[in-house]
Amino acid sequence: MNVFDCIVIGGGPSGLSASLTLGRARREIVLFDDGSNRNRVTHESHGFITRDGIKPQEFKEIGLKELENYPSVSYFNTTITEIIKDIGNERFIVKTTDGQECVTEKIILATGIQEVFSIQSVRNYYGKSLFSCPYCDGWELRDKPLIVMAEKEEHALHMAKLIYNWSQDLVVITNGVQLSKEGVTELQKRNIKIKSEPIKNLIGNDGYLQQIEFVSGETIIRSGGFVVPSFYRPNDFAEMLGCEVQENGTVITDGVGRTTQKNIYIAGETEKSGPSSLMISAADGNKAAVSVNTDLTMERF
C-alpha cells in the first residue's frame, strides 16, 4: 500500500489551497471531498479578489482543475468514515465509504462547519435572500427592507449595528426572546423596529423572502435579511484524534495549522468552529500546508 505524505480532508477553499501548496512542493497527497461544503447553497460568493461574485461550485471546479497540473496530487469525491492512528502517530490509515484505504504520514482537517437554524424554514431562503455574513452579501441587499433574525441579545445588537451600514430599513426579530430595556433603547434610537413574538412561518417564492408570519397572525413584509445560526463540525475527527479543543469549540493550534497532536493539522472553519470568508479560509489552508511541508522537510533531511 502506498504511503502518502499528506491527506487533506475537505475540498473547500482551505483544503483546495492546502492541496495546491503541497502539490507545488512536490508532495504526494490525496484530497478527499464529499461535496457537503456549506456554501453549496449560495448562488454567489463575494470578497475573494479576482473572483468576486463567482458561484461556489465554479470556484471549486477551477481549484480542482488547477490541481490537475500537479501529478503528485490525487482527488477523490468520497466521504472519510474512519481514521486509525498508528503507534506514536507516525502514520494513519484513512478509510472511505467506497472501500478505499490510504496510509499517510500527515493529515490536514479542512472539513468545515455546518449551520443549525431554530426556524427550519430558513433553509428555504438561505443562500438566496437570507444570509449569515454581511461582508459576503450585504452589498446585494443594500437599501432593501431587511430582517435581522437572532435569538441572543448580543447577537441581535451586533448584527443590527453591522447591517445598518448597508440598509437602515431594519426589523430585528428575536423569535420569542425579550431584549433588555437597554438593548431596545439602543436599537430604537436608530429607528430599528423590534419584533419579539415567536415566528410561525417565513413566506416567499423560489428562495426569495416576501413576508414573516408571527404566531399572533400578524405579518410583515421583508425582502431578505441576515440570520445568526449556531454552528457545528460535521464530524468529530479532531476530538477523535486527540486534538485539544477550547471551551468555545476552537481547536488549539500554534497559529499555522499544527494541532496539539503530532502530524495532525487543521485549517479554515474546521479550526475555528465558526464562519470564515473564502479568502481567510484559503490563507489558512496555505499556512497549514507550509507547516506540513516544513515538518516533512526537517524530519527527512
UniProtKB/TrEMBL annotation:
Coiled coil: none annotated. One of its GO terms (molecular function) is oxidoreductase activity. This is NAD(P)/FAD-dependent oxidoreductase. Pfam families: Pyr_redox_2. Homodimer. Residues 4-279 form the FAD/NAD(P)-binding domain. Transmembrane segments: none annotated. Gene3D superfamilies: FAD/NAD(P)-binding domain. It comes from Peribacillus psychrosaccharolyticus. Keywords: Flavoprotein, Oxidoreductase. InterPro entries: FAD/NAD-bd_sf, FAD/NAD-binding_dom, Ferredoxin-NADP_redctase_2. Its cofactor is FAD.
